[in-house]
Amino acid sequence: MNVVLDIVPQTISFGNAPTVTVGGAGNVSATASSGLTVTFASSTPTICSVSGATVTGLAAGTCTITANQAGNTSYSAASQLTQNITVGKSAQTISFGNAPTVTVGGSGTVSATASSGLTVTFASSTPTVCSVSGKTVTGLAAGTCTITANQAGNTSYSAASQLTQNITVGTGASINTLPMEGFWTGTSSTGTQVQLAILENGETFGFYFYQGQLAGALYGNTKNSGTNLSGTGFDFYNATIHPGSYSGTFSSKNTIYVATSLGTTFTGSYSAEYNQPATLATIAGTYAGYGLTGWTYAQSVPITIASNGSISGSVTVGGYSCSFSGTASQRASGKNVFNVQITHTGNGCALGNGTKTYGIAYYNSSARLLVTMALNSAKTDGLMYLGVR
Description:
The chain is an all-beta fold. The chain is built from 1 helix and 34 strands. The chain has one helix spanning 280-283, and strands spanning 12-14, 20-21, 25-27, 30-32, 39-42, 48-51, 54-57, 61-68, 81-88, 94-96, 102-103, 107-109, 112-114, 121-124, 130-133, 136-139, 143-150, 163-170, 182-188, 193-198, 203-210, 213-225, 228-237, 240-251, 255-260, 265-271, 285-292, 299-305, 310-317, 320-330, 338-345, 356-364, 369-375, 382-388. It starts with 11 loop residues before the first strand and ends with a strand. The mean pLDDT is 89.
């Protein structure tokens, strides 16, 4: 008598899907109701591979794992089951090398690597102190240069968190070597009062006053040959921005004459205010004043500078508002000039919501007057401010 045994069907059940990233691995699990061993394969071989129960991520995307059990003399083959696993991008981090030595007018090479091996890009968040081209950092003014390092990621790696490195830009040989450095005050050929600040690195900031009110400003970079000076920059006047150049003559710490390409001339004399001791405590307080940009006329703006150098203020007109936040810090020159960095936030900001501006402020102690110019990164517009404490 022949006895025929029935073949028993079986099913497969997956366990929880493992967490897998590109370049990483995780273990897949599944059981057959028969107790027989389940085998795995990848049906998305460009996304993941499988060896035994180990799944390795090859690219970001959906990895599909197939599970099979072929059966034996007692159990029929199980129906194939699949499990989808999301292969995520791998995280990456950035590490800086040693900070280079940089002086005003000099340069150094910054270095950083990403754990992914991808190329790191650099930028300066303190453009009045230093600039960056590729990996080369150039010192523009004495102070703290902050370099940002970024790696945007690719199909396999997510973007790295931004990392910063502070580099102290030293004075080098250029500090106090420009014979035309200092504050200069006088009158222009149009009848406006002018205050001109030529810094130790040649950066030049000028302010126009008409009947005691701030009317405009100029920014440039000045160089000299003997007692002759020249430069290029921008003139912000009457809500209009004019690129231009200028030239003139000077007698160190005595007199200055400047003629601009726009036809305006300026005659002035040296101001000892430049050499007054300057500390953050000197300028701390709340100022009542007004600000304007290259394209807008003056508006009343109160600004407060804390003893630690933090800057805050806001203005609201109708349904539009703009707030200001930032920092003031002493320049390494020790002169009566402060570096300022201001962020503009709000729907009423003339320079745009989120715009960061950089520049200088100086303080007239006898008049308790703060004068500030902070320009956008392209130095094509900015905030000019005059306030009394």
